[in-house]
Write a structure and sequence with these properties.
With 548 residues, this protein is an alpha/beta fold. Helix content is 43%, strand content 16%. The protein has 23 helices and 18 strands. The strands form three sheets. Strands 1-2-3-18-16-15-10-11-14-13-12 form an eleven-stranded mixed beta sheet. α17 links the parallel β13 and β14. It starts with a helix and ends with a helix.
Length: 548
C-alpha cells in the first residue's frame, strides 16, 4: 500500500505517450501469456483441453482483455475522443437524448460481426461528452492521485484485469487488485501480463481471503473501491456484516465505509421471447442460443439468462420450450466450481417442486434445471434470487399478441425482477416491422444497463466497446446490480445503457453455441487476431468458423 500510494500522483502526471507505451508493452506480454493463462483457467474449472468449454474460456474469458487494451490504445491515440460511427438524437420527456453508435468501427469488425450494431444511449437532457480526464487535463486541470482497491471477481478471467484497466485509464487511479480466492491461480498470469504497469509502480496484485479483504477496504491509503461480485459483499463493506446492524445503518444512512464505491453485482436476468411467425430453423436457432447463454461457464455468469418470459398464447410456445429443453439437455455437464452453487440450486428445487432436471448429473456438477409455471407475483422468490448456476425459470405472459406481450413483459421485468444489469429481447424481423412502436418502445423502456436484441447480452460485455454495469439510479441502500459503468473504453458520458442489435439469425454458426464443432481453434484464433489485426490472422478465424 505504501508503494502504490507513493506513485499515485506520478500516475496522474503521466502523459498520453507514456500511457500508450505501457499499454503496447502489456499487449505484447498478454500474447505471450495467453496459452498458459487459458490452460490454468481450464484446469481450475475442470475443463478438458480441446473441448467446447475450452473455446468458451478463450472467447468469453480471455478475449475481453486484449480487446480492452486495444480500445484503450485506440482512445488514447485520439486524445480520449475517438470518433463515433454515427450519432442521433431522440426526444424524451426529460429532454433530448443522444444515441452514439460505436460498433462496428472497422472493416474487420464488419467482416467478423456482420449485421451487428452497438449503440450507447446517453442520459436524457445531457450533452454528449467524451474524453473524461483527458479532456480536463487538456484544459489545464489537475488533481491529486488516488488509490483504488479493485476486489476481483471469481468467475471469469477478464473481470479483474479489465476493472483494473478502467480504474487506471478512465478514473486515473493507481490500483491494488485483490484476487478472489476462487480464481487466485490467475494472479501470477496477471502479474506477468501486466508487468509493465507493475514495474512502473502503478499496479499491485495481492492475495488472501476475508481478513485481507476487510483490511484493504478499511485501509487508510485506499481512496475508492470497486467490486465485481454480489450485493451481499457490497452491503457487508458499506453497511457492515451483522444483519441487524446493517439494516439499522441503512435506515439511518450511516455508512460504515464512506469511500466512493462502484460495483457490478449481478442480476436475475430476463430473456424475452416475443411471439411471431417463426420457422423451424428460427425455433431451433434461438433454443440453442438460449441454451448456450444459460450453460456458458456452468451458469456462473452475472449475465446468464435466469427468467424466460414467453407468451402463453403463442401457438409455438410449447414447441419452443421443448426445443430449449432439448438444447440444454444436449449441453455437456460442467463442474460447478463456484462456491455456494449447490446450496442455491437445492434451495430453488425445494421451493419449486415442479422443477425438472434436464442435464446429466456427475460428481461436482449442478445439473441443468428448468422451473416451469413461476407465477407473475410481486416478491416471488425465484424472481428476486440470483441462482448463479444453470437454472432457468419460465414465466408465462398471458397473451398471444406481440405488442401486448411487450406491454406486459417489459414493465414486469423492470419492476419485479431483481437487478438491472442486462437483458435479451428476441423479436422476429417481421414482428419488428409490423409493430415498430411496440418494439422500439420496449427497447427504450427497458431499464437495464445492457439490452441485447436477438442475442445474448453477455456478448456486449466481452466486446469492450460499451459500458457494463447496472442501470443508473441504484443507491448504496438499494444497490441492485451496482453503481457505475465499468469498461467505458471509448469514454462517452453520461452513459444510460448500451443497446446491442444483432441479426435474427447469425451465419455461420455463432461461436458461443455449445454445439460449435471447432470452438477452441476459433476462440484462440480470434484472440490472436486481437494482438495483430489483419488478413494473416483473419484466415484461421474464418476457417474455424466455417467448419464449426
Amino acid at each position: 500500500m505504501a508503494e502504490i500510494r507513493a506513485n499515485a500522483d506520478r500516475w496522474v502526471e503521466t502523459g498520453v505517450e507514456i500511457r500508450l507505451k505501457l499499454l503496447r508493452e502489456v499487449m505484447i506480454a498478454l500474447e505471450a501469456e495467453a496459452d498458459a493463462w487459458v490452460a490454468t483457467s481450464c484446469k481450475l474449472k475442470g475443463i478438458e483441453p480441446g473441448t467446447n468449454p475450452e473455446g468458451q474460456e478463450w472467447l468469453s474469458g480471455f478475449l475481453a482483455i486484449p480487446r480492452s487494451v486495444r480500445y484503450l490504445i485506440h482512445t488514447l491515440e485520439h486524445d480520449g475522443k475517438p470518433p463515433p460511427v454515427s450519432q442521433r438524437r431522440r426526444s424524451t420527456p426529460d429532454g433530448d437524448q443522444w444515441i452514439v453508435r460505436v460498433f462496428p468501427q472497422t472493416l474487420l469488425d464488419k467482416a467478423l460481426f456482420t449485421g451487428w450494431n452497438i449503440d450507447l444511449w446517453l442520459e436524457p437532457g445531457a450533452p454528449a461528452e467524451q474524453g473524461g480526464i483527458y479532456r480536463r487535463k487538456a484544459a489545464g486541470e489537475t488533481w491529486p492521485g488516488k488509490v483504488a482497491l479493485v476486489m476481483g471477481a471469481g468467475n471469469q478471467i477478464f473481470l479483474g484485469p479489465t476493472d483494473m484497466l478502467h480504474k487506471l485509464f478512465i478514473d486515473d487511479e493507481v490500483v491494488v487488485l485483490k484476487m478472489n480466492p476462487v480464481n487466485e491461480v490467475d494472479g501470477p498470469h496477471i502479474e506477468r501480463a501486466f508487468k509493465p504497469l507493475i514495474d512502473a509502480g502503478f499496479v499491485r496484485v495481492v492475495y488472501g481471503g476475508l481478513e485481507v479483504g476487510k483490511h484493504l477496504c478499511t485501509h487508510p491509503e485506499v481512496d475508492t473501491i470497486h467490486v465485481t461480485g454480489s450485493d451481499a459483499t457490497h452491503d457487508a463493506i458499506v453497511w457492515g456484516a451483522d444483519p441487524i446492524e446493517r439494516e439499522r445503518r441503512k435506515a439511518s444512512g450511516e455508512r460504515l465505509n464512506e469511500r466512493p464505491f462502484t460495483s457490478e453485482l449481478g442480476c436475475v436476468s430476463p430473456y424475452f421471447i416475443t411471439p411471431g411467425p417463426w420457422t423451424e430453423r428460427d425455433l431451433d436457432y434461438h433454443a440453442r442460443q438460449l441454451a448456450a447463454a444459460l450453460t456458458q461457464n456452468a451458469g456462473h455468469n452475472c449475465a446468464a439468462p435466469q427468467v424466460l418470459l414467453v407468451a402463453s398464447g403463442w401457438d409455438q410456445r410449447d414447441e419452443f420450450v421443448a426445443r430449449v429443453e432439448q438444447a440444454i439437455a444436449a449441453s455437456p455437464p460442467r463442474i460447478s466450481y463456484y462456491p455456494g452453487s449447490t446450496r442455491r440450486w437445492e434451495e430453488f428445487c425445494s421451493k419449486y417442486p415442479q422443477h425438472k432436471i434436464i442435464g446429466r448429473k456427475g460428481e461436482g456438477v449442478v445439473p441443468w434445471t428448468l422451473v416451469s409455471d413461476v407465477p407473475m407475483t410481486s416478491g416471488e422468490w425465484a424472481l428476486t434470487c440470483e441462482g448463479f448456476c444453470g437454472l432457468l425459470n419460465i414465466v408465462d405472459i398471458p397473451t398471444d399478441d406481440p405488442a401486448e406481450f411487450l406491454a406486459k413483459a417489459v414493465p414486469f421485468a423492470n419492476d419485479e425482477l431483481w437487478g438491472n444489469l442486462s437483458c435479451s429481447l428476441i423479436v422476429h424481423p417481421k414482428t419488428r416491422k409490423a409493430h415498430p412502436e411496440a418494439v422500439e418502445g420496449a427497447i427504450a423502456e427497458l431499464r437495464y444497463g445492457t439490452v441485447a436484441v436477438n442475442g445474448w447480452a453477455g456478448a456486449g460485455c466481452a466486446l469492450m466497446v460499451s459500458g457494463w454495469g447496472g442501470y443508473p439510479g441504484n443507491t448504496q441502500e438499494d444497490v441492485q446490480s451496482g453503481i457505475g459503468m465499468a469498461h467505458n473504453n471509448l469514454l462517452w458520458e453520461p452513459l444510460l445503457k448500451s443497446v446491442i442489435d444483432l441479426p435474427f439469425r447469425v451465419q455461420p454458426k455463432p461461436p458461443w453455441f455449445v454445439d460449435h464443432r471447432n470452438l477452441p481453434a476459433m476462440g484462440r484464433a480470434l484472440v490472436m487476431m486481437e494482438f495483430k489485426p489483419g488478413l494473416g490472422r483473419l484466415f484461421p478465424v474464418l476457417g474455424a468458423a466455417l467448419t464449426g
